[in-house]
Design goal:
This protein is of the alpha+beta class. The chain is built from eight helices and eight strands, in the order ααβββααααββββαβα. The strands form two sheets. The protein has a five-stranded mixed β-sheet with strand order 5-6-7-4-8. Strands 1-2-3 form a three-stranded antiparallel β-sheet, with no helix packed on it.
């Protein structure tokens, strides 16, 4: 039965959220709050729950899926899991992998007879690297803080080859950006900044409800590699109020100086 097509939706959610496959399979309807644009991930490998922000486009797709799911199972028993099989129980992990393999062959990411190819979470890392790369090659003043140097060519090669690289290569760390009421703030897109963290070059930018940091050091960034996106797909989001994030504080100071104090340059982004 093609309605509702759960396998493809799971793959799409994994590629934009950083969830592990098991976490996506364990999601229940009560764990998805489309009004607040967050998912609650329960019983992680550390025994704690965490919130994962959702982009507006992801909320729209999930809302459509849930609507079709409810209509499809309106008069039949079905489990409380968000993604269910044609039998109404939790979607099987093997079905998700087979759907991903079929779709990756259709769009050319995997050869027709290839036994190896991209993993489900590879596209998530490549997506963020593509944003960083485009900022580096852009001549627009908005992206002047991003200069990848020798890393620019390496990331270009990775993107062309659809290769996310080794586990510790350009690791990604993220902070969920919270609004005044504790909701995920999805309206903010910040200018990218460059900084140093424990001797490592890092680049950061807010979009999609999170502050994304990518380490571009030649040597291994242990903090980013251990606390950020894992090859397993596991990723922990640390929640921070938008007013406490350095780049937003700097923007606030700059605006106050422009409209209230007509003197002096704005502070440099941290």
């Amino acid at each position: 039965m093609a309605d509702p097509p759960s396998g493809a939706q799971v793959g799409a959610l994994l590629s934009v959220s950083g969830l592990r496959l098991g976490e996506a399979r364990n999601l229940e309807l009560q764990d998805v709050d489309l009004n607040a644009a967050v998912m609650t991930i329960r019983g992680t490998k550390f025994g704690k729950s965490r919130l994962v922000p959702l982009h507006a486009s992801t909320c729209k797709v999930l809302a459509d899926y849930i609507k079709r799911r409810n209509r499809h199972w309106a008069k039949r028993p079905v489990s409380s899991y968000l993604f269910v099989s044609n039998w109404g129980n939790r979607l099987d992990g093997g079905d998700i992998h087979r759907t991903f393999y079929a779709l990756s062959r259709q769009i050319g990411l995997r050869g027709a007879s290839a036994s190896h190819g991209p993993r489900i979470h590879d596209t998530f890392k490549l997506f963020h690297l593509s944003i960083l790369f485009k900022a580096s090659v852009s001549s627009h003043s908005t992206f002047r803080a991003v200069s990848l140097g020798k890393h620019e060519e390496r990331i270009r090669e990775m993107l062309l080859a659809k290769n996310p690289g080794q586990a510790g290569e350009y690791p990604i760390l993220a902070f969920a950006v919270l609004g005044a009421q504790g909701e995920v703030e999805r309206r903010i897109i910040s200018q990218p900044i460059a900084a140093r963290y424990e001797g490592h070059h890092v680049n950061g930018q807010i979009y999609g409800g999170a502050m994304w940091w990518i380490s571009t050091s030649s040597h291994r960034n242990i903090a980013f590699s251990s606390g950020g996106l894992q090859q397993s797909g596991d990723m922990t989001f640390i929640a921070e109020p938008w007013s406490e994030i350095g780049v937003m504080q700097d923007a606030s100071v700059a605006l106050k100086r422009k409209y209230v104090e007509p003197c002096g340059p704005p502070d440099a982004a941290r």
